[in-house]
Amino acid sequence: MTSTVPALGTRTAEGSALQGVLLDMDGTLVDTEGFWWDVEAEVFASLGHTLDESWRHVVVGGPMTRSAGFLIEATGADITLDELTELLNDGFEDRIGRALPLMPGAGRLLAELYEYEIPTALVSASHRRIIDRVLTSLGAHHFSLTVAGDEVPRTKPHPDPYLAAAAGLGVDPARCAVIEDTATGVAAAEAAGCHVVAVPSVAPISPALRRTVVTSLEEVDLTFLHGLMTQMR
Predict the structure, then answer these.
(1) What GO molecular-function term can you cite, just one (predicted)?
(2) With 0-12 CB in 10 A as exposed, 13-18 as middle and 19+ as buried, what is 80?
(3) Is 94 a catalytic residue?
(4) For this structure, is 52 an active site residue?
(5) For every one of its 233 residues, what pLDDT tens digit does the chain have, with 9 covering 90 and above?
(6) pTM of the model
(7) Residues 139, 25 share a domain
């Protein structure tokens, strides 16, 4: 398990307004948003229900309790939230055990942030058991801390996960860049007062104040992130 206590000795580049980078996991760093939907469809098929494709946009990027709860209500499946959560996590762990593709540019960006000792946190609505499995592929050393969805009182779209990450890093949320792929995650980051880089995965996201939209992480590097902070001055 990766400790959620930040590593000591991390520092930002002198004179830079960028104090930290906070990254979502599913759909942002790893190409797994489709995995979740496939597992949800398989689990509900085993219960005798077919998921409507339009529901995919409802459940993407949300906490397990919200997504699973919505699907139980929408299908009328005879299963409890706790039972469904266990089945979904089991199915997802099986999927990532077989393959875990990184999003284009993710490995290069993480390596650059690590090289320049930028305080970096992984902030996900996924549960701790899932994050720890994914970290074996992402490289736990890339992150000063990690925040899981089952470790905060309220997860995304509430600001709690990003506020917790900034506090753990000892940085100002307003001087952090958050990288997210869903509207739910963007809402959480903006509610925390962070500048957001949106890399839409399933549904479109529009640019807005303190929100920059790119098509791929291949467009994002440390110079790009420093530039965002400079624009805010």
Answers:
(1) hydrolase activity
(2) exposed
(3) no
(4) no
(5) 343 433 333 344 444 599 999 999 999 999 887 888 889 999 999 999 999 998 887 777 667 788 889 999 999 999 999 999 999 989 988 888 877 899 999 999 999 999 999 999 999 999 999 999 999 989 999 999 999 999 999 999 999 999 999 999 999 999 999 999 999 999 999 999 999 999 998 889 999 999 999 999 999 999 999 998 877 65
(6) 0.80
(7) yes
